[in-house]
From TrEMBL:
<dbReference type="GO" id="GO:0003723">
    <property type="term" value="F:RNA binding"/>
</dbReference>
<dbReference type="InterPro" id="IPR037151">
    <property type="entry name" value="AlkB-like_sf"/>
</dbReference>
<dbReference type="InterPro" id="IPR012677">
    <property type="entry name" value="Nucleotide-bd_a/b_plait_sf"/>
</dbReference>
<keyword id="KW-0694">RNA-binding</keyword>
<dbReference type="InterPro" id="IPR035979">
    <property type="entry name" value="RBD_domain_sf"/>
</dbReference>
<protein>
    <submittedName>
        <fullName>Uncharacterized protein</fullName>
    </submittedName>
</protein>
<comment type="similarity">
    <text>Belongs to the alkB family.</text>
</comment>
<dbReference type="InterPro" id="IPR032857">
    <property type="entry name" value="ALKBH4"/>
</dbReference>
<dbReference type="Pfam" id="PF13532">
    <property type="entry name" value="2OG-FeII_Oxy_2"/>
</dbReference>
<dbReference type="GO" id="GO:0070988">
    <property type="term" value="P:demethylation"/>
</dbReference>
<dbReference type="InterPro" id="IPR000504">
    <property type="entry name" value="RRM_dom"/>
</dbReference>
<feature type="domain" description="Fe2OG dioxygenase">
    <location>
        <begin position="203"/>
        <end position="324"/>
    </location>
</feature>
<dbReference type="InterPro" id="IPR005123">
    <property type="entry name" value="Oxoglu/Fe-dep_dioxygenase_dom"/>
</dbReference>
<dbReference type="GO" id="GO:0032451">
    <property type="term" value="F:demethylase activity"/>
</dbReference>
<dbReference type="InterPro" id="IPR027450">
    <property type="entry name" value="AlkB-like"/>
</dbReference>
<feature type="domain" description="RRM">
    <location>
        <begin position="20"/>
        <end position="98"/>
    </location>
</feature>
<dbReference type="GO" id="GO:0016491">
    <property type="term" value="F:oxidoreductase activity"/>
</dbReference>
Length: 342
């Protein structure tokens, strides 16, 4: 029996929109009622085409009948009533409808890499399962116990030095404290990432925590050269996303955030993208850090190799940087604010 999770949605006004599908709460394997028992019982109202999970709880299901009349009979008989045949539980029933397949704009299709080796941008590395699920929950609990600062579309926290969004820089003279103790396990792992560094206390000294609601992304930008050193680490928690990388014509060399539409209209550019799973660590260094804009599309659903992956209710990123103490001497002067003519 199929207990996979199809794309069904409940109707808010169930009495006026009948369908052959019923959403049934307080019923399922998690409350001791087998799928076989559910199908057998609901078959008394009419032929059952399938029983599916409504969500991951195991206590809410979708019963799909072949006929609307069967669903109507079950709805009128069971909604809000105690059902002795299903363990004496009071069932809460609504009509349900299968969602339409996700529409993909073929004009904006871009192959999505799953590994940094497929992305093939020098200096960009992705490590899956950088932390465990338990460590992920500990980090989320730690930041949720601390105050958030509200921006227009997301919330942030800053440690070490505050990131100044107006200038995309930091005030290196305004030290706001050591990095919090709850990130020490992450810092200890950073020194092993791609064999970089030999002292985690010197590797990074600034942390920005971002919380992204569904549909909120990040404008294309290159992290300011004069603000931070070569390596920028980004840990994804709780949710997934696609990150796109773009390398533009020389007249798009500014490190500041730029207009998305104008850049998309630039035909002489390179575009690549990679899927960032929860608990993965991304390293931007070298050419990938200094010469490629990075960008998170403002989508609620990401298309990865033909599959629609809906973003979760929140995605939290921990971005670790090292504040630069002197002018940038990178090999990409056309993108470098330390060497741009004023």
């Amino acid at each position: 029996m199929d207990l996979s999770q199809p794309r069904f949605t409940r109707h808010r006004d169930s009495t006026y929109h009948m369908t052959p599908n019923l959403y049934v709460a307080n019923c399922g394997p998690a409350v001791g009622i087998s799928v076989e028992a559910i199908k057998s019982f609901f078959s008394s109202f009419g032929e059952v085409a399938g029983v599916h999970a409504a969500d991951k709880s195991g206590s809410r299901i979708i019963v799909c009948f072949l006929e609307v009349s069967a669903a109507e009979a079950a709805y009128r008989t069971l909604n809000g009533c105690r059902c002795e045949a299903l363990g004496g539980r009071i069932l809460h029933v609504q009509y349900s409808e299968q969602q339409q397949p996700l529409k993909v704009d073929s004009n904006d299709s871009l192959p999505v890499s799953l590994f940094s080796s497929e992305l093939a941008i020098p200096g960009i590395y992705l490590l899956h399962d950088f932390i465990s699920s338990e460590e992920e929950q500990e980090l989320l609990s730690a930041v949720d116990s601390r105050p958030w600062k509200n921006l227009s579309k997301r919330r942030v926290q800053h440690y070490g030095y505050e990131f100044l969004y107006e200038t995309r820089n930091v005030d290196s003279k305004n030290f706001i404290g050591e990095l919090p103790s709850f990130v020490i396990p992450v810092l200890e792992k950073l020194v092993k990432f791609h064999g970089e560094g030999d002292n985690n206390s010197k590797l990074v000294d600034q942390l920005t925590v971002n919380e992204y609601p569904p549909g909120i992304g990040l404008s294309p930008h290159i992290d300011t050269h004069s603000a931070f050193d070569n390596m920028i680490f980004s840990l994804s928690l709780s949710g997934t996303c696609i990150m796109e990388f773009r390398k533009y014509l020389p007249w798009h060399s500014s490190t500041a955030a730029v207009d998305v539409k104008s850049l998309q209209e630039c035909s002489s550019s390179l575009r690549k993208s990679i899927f960032l799973p929860a608990r993965s660590m991304l390293l931007l260094s070298g050419e990938g850090r200094y010469a490629w804009h990075h960008y998170i599309p403002h989508h609620k659903v990401d298309i990865v190799r033909g599959d629609g992956i809906r973003r979760s209710s929140r995605r939290v990123s921990f971005t670790f940087r090292k504040v630069r103490r002197g002018p940038c001497q990178c090999e990409f002067p056309q993108h470098c604010d330390s060497r741009m003519e004023i």
